[in-house]
Design goal:
The protein has two domains: about 160 residues, VC0802-like (2-Layer Sandwich); about 190 residues, 3-Layer(aba) Sandwich (Rossmann fold). The strands form two sheets. It has an eight-stranded mixed sheet. A seven-stranded mixed sheet has the order 11-10-9-12-13-15-14, with helices on one face. It is of the alpha/beta class and about 350 residues long. It is built from nine helices and 15 strands.
Length: about 350
C-alpha cells in the first residue's frame, strides 16, 4: 500500500529518518517514492488493516499523521476531482460507514484560497458513489493533502498523539535538571537506535532519565547508568512517575558493569558544559581534554557492550565527535544537527557496530 507521512516541520532531516528507522525496526519492507516538503510517500508491503500501523503510529514522535494514498494530482481542481472519481473506495468504506472530507495544507499554493470550498465539492463526488456524509463523527476521514507540488487524496489512518509529549515535558517530572532533551527528540533518538519491543536498551549517561522514559514507553527493557547518585535516584523517581520499571546503576560510563555484546540498542546524550565526573581523571585537566578522554573511553565501553550489527545513537555538542568515533569499530550511518537555541547546536550521530 502507498503511505504518506505528514512530518513535523521542527527539523529538516530527523522526522524522515525516524520513519525509516521505525519501519526497519518493525521489519516492514518499503520503498521511498517521493518527498514533497513535509510529506514523505512510500510504498510499503503492508495490508491496510495491519496491526503494525498501530504500532508505528504509537512509536513515532516527529510525525503528525499517517495516510493511505488513494490518488495524486497536479494542483488543479479538475484533476483533483478526476482522482476522487477514479479512486477505489470500496476497500476503505464498508457497509454503513460514513465519511468526512478535510483539507491539510503543508505549503501555500494556488489552491490555498480554495481550501474551505474543496471539502464540500469533493464530498459531493464521494456521495455520488453511494456513501453518507457525517461531519461530526465520521467512520472514515478523507484528506486532501495540499503540498507545494501536488495534491494527494488520502484516507486518514492514524493521528499521532501529541499530548503524550506535552505531558512528559521535563519541568513536569518529579525530578528536573536544566538542559535535558525534550521528549519528542528523545523519542526520535530511541527510534533511530532501532530498538524493538522487549529488547535491551541502554543509556550510559542517563541523567534524569528522559531517553529511558521514551524507550520504556515503546516497550523496551531499559538500563540507565550515571556517575552521580542524585541522577540515578532522580531518574528512578521519574520512571516510577510514568509507571515504568528499569535497572538504574550508579556507574562510570567508562566502566559499564555489563557483559560484552549484551545490549541491543544504545542512545545517550554525552555530557557537555556541565559538571561531569569520571574516575581516574584528575581535576587539573582542562575541560576539552577531559571531555575528549571521556568520549573516547565511553565509546570503548559502548562498543564493547553493544551487540554486533546494532546501533548506538550519540548526542554531542560539538561536530568534532566525527573525529573521535573512527578510532572505534563503528560505521557511520547518519548525522543530524539540530538547534537548541541561538548559541547551541546539538549533533546526533548514528553508529553501527561492525
Amino acid at each position: 500500500m502507498e503511505l504518506a507521512f505528514e512530518l513535523s516541520g521542527e527539523h529538516e532531516t530527523l522526522p524522515k529518518a525516524e520513519v525509516f528507522a521505525c519501519l526497519d525496526a518493525l521489519r516492514v519492507a518499503y520503498e521511498e517514492r517521493m518527498t514533497l516538503g513535509r510529506v514523505l510517500v512510500i510504498d510499503a508491503q503492508l495490508p491496510p488493516e495491519s496491526e503494525l500501523l498501530d504500532v508505528l503510529a504509537k512509536r513515532l514522535g516527529m510525525t503528525h499523521y499517517i495516510y493511505e494514498v488513494k490518488g495524486m494530482s497536479e494542483l488543479d481542481e479538475k484533476e483533483i476531482f478526476k482522482i476522487v472519481e477514479n479512486a477505489d473506495l470500496d476497500a476503505v468504506m464498508k457497509k454503513g460507514h460514513t465519511f468526512a472530507v478535510r483539507v491539510r495544507v503543508t505549503h501555500k499554493s494556488s489552491l490555498y484560497s480554495k481550501r474551505q470550498e474543496l471539502p464540500t465539492m469533493v464530498g459531493e463526488c464521494i456521495k455520488r458513489k453511494g456513501y453518507t456524509v457525517n461531519l461530526e463523527n465520521p467512520t472514515k476521514t478523507f484528506v486532501l493533502l495540499l503540498t507545494a507540488q501536488a495534491c494527494l487524496f488520502c484516507a486518514l489512518l492514524h493521528s499521532v498523539d501529541k499530548k503524550q509529549f506535552e505531558e512528559k515535558k521535563p519541568h513536569l517530572r518529579p525530578f528536573f535538571s536544566p538542559g535535558v532533551i525534550i521528549p519528542k527528540i528523545a523519542r526520535a533518538l530511541v527510534n533511530l537506535s532501532g530498538v524493538k519491543d522487549k529488547e535491551l536498551f541502554l543509556d550510559p549517561f542517563c541523567g534524569t532519565g528522559g531517553i529511558l522514559i521514551e524507550a520504556g514507553m515503546i516497550g523496551a527493557r531499559i538500563i540507565g547508568a550515571d556517575v552521580q547518585d542524585k541522577m540515578v535516584k532522580g531518574a528512578k523517581e521519574n520512571l516510577n512517575f510514568f509507571g515504568l520499571t528499569g535497572d538504574l546503576i550508579l556507574s562510570d560510563a567508562t566502566k559499564i558493569p555489563l557483559k560484552d555484546n549484551s545490549v541491543d540498542a544504545i542512545a545517550t546524550d554525552m555530557p557537555y558544559g556541565r559538571s561531569s565526573f569520571v574516575s581516574g581523571l584528575g581535576s587539573s585537566k582542562s575541560r576539552s581534554v577531559f571531555l575528549e578522554r571521556l568520549y573516547l573511553d565511553a565509546l570503548d565501553e559502548i562498543y564493547r557492550v553493544l551487540k554486533t550489527g546494532r546501533k548506538a545513537v550519540i548526542v554531542s555538542n560539538s561536530p568534532s565527535f566525527l573525529y573521535i568515533y573512527p578510532k572505534h569499530g563503528f560505521q557511520l550511518l547518519e548525522r543530524h544537527t539540530y538547534r537548541v537555541h541561538k548559541s547551541l547546536n546539538r549533533y546526533i550521530t548514528v553508529l553501527e557496530k561492525e
